[in-house]
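Hey,
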Amino acid sequence: MELHRCSLLALLLAVTCSVAVAYDPLDPKGNITIKWDVISWTPDGYVAMVTMSNYQMYRQILAPGWTVGWSWAKKEVIWSIVGAQATEQGDCSKFKGGIPHSCKRTPAIVDLLPGVPYNQQIANCCKAGVVSAYGQDPAGSVSAFQVSVGLAGTTNKTVKLPTNFTLAGPGPGYTCGPATIVPSTVYLTPDRRRRTQALMTWTVTCTYSQQLASRYPTCCVSFSSFYNSTIVPCARCACGCGHDGYRGNGGGGKNARAGDGRSRRNSGHGGGGHSGGTECIMGDSKRALSAGVNTPRKDGAPLLQCTSHMCPIRVHWHVKLNYKDYWRAKIAITNFNYRMNYTQWTLVAQHPNLNNVTEVFSFQYKPLLPYGNINDTGMFYGLKFYNDLLMEAGPFGNVQSEVLMRKDYNTFTFSQGWAFPRKIYFNGDECKMPPPDSYPYLPNSAPIGPPRSVAAAASAILVVLLLVA
């Protein structure tokens, strides 16, 4: 009996942990849903419209884009596909007439590039696999293609659903559930006077886990304030520095040391753009200024500027000014990856005073409400055509903004690190925060002085009085 209880408890813990891994407390309903709508039958199969909808509020799919895969239940083939393509044709030698687009038992599908001929396009296709976050750009959060499947069932009772769905976006991190038959999708004709519906519909839900995507964080956070001279940097090796040292590669020679090498390789990183070792070069080296240094690699391996934290992204939060009824913080995002431009980036902060945001300068801002009426989480992102592109490492590899927040005197204080965020996410990945005991605290000798505007006015009155006297 006791053994049975232990086994049951172990099973319950395993299930709980597996669910928790893919659960984001700041975006509890976030997922990517892949929907198959069978829109017509063919002599040996069906034509389906496949739509991928990103319902994640602040996590997008960046270049080189998504890859969707599955396993056929029988011996199906893809006769043709519009708006996407299979990466491999497979063995189609048994076909004597028309050759299918793909005969792979486990096809992998990728989006087409922009600018392909119109006869290969379909609505919401051909964006190189880039899909926006739903909270940032709902219209750009959808991707679609049309597929003609052969050697399959020709009725909704004989069609066998594909299995083992996978989604790379573009790296690992997504886990997809089984296909589930749902009520058929209903369509409106262009004149919106007639309703049609799919012959059969099934959906697949994919959720993201940062632990599956990378062994280490992909960003870190540093702090500073006007009331304390201490600058709290990102933790050393916040994004992993390996355990076997650096291997020289380039300007520093093979024996470049960790302290003076001009180019190093960190072999301890895991996934999320860190697989295969992370190479870094000094920002003032000749290679950092050479042609081709910004060319991405096919495997997505980064080339970082050598730092103590070894993170592609650093977010710096600075408490800048203190007014009577307001206070002001500055946010700076720096890209240390020479091979990566972040398009349509997002930054999410969890802070108790975000419920009183008065103005955000040079960034867009949208409050998130993951817990109903508790408004302590917000999303920042760039202005279109202005700073929505975070350039690669170098002089232009940063974006900055300032946030003005109204004080709530019932809860407001600068003491005990209150002015700093509790969590920071960049592009949906949680950043490594400094330890709480290192936050810049108020000096113990005296409380905050009067706001600058009040102090300046008092000084001016004192000068006038002295002159009159």
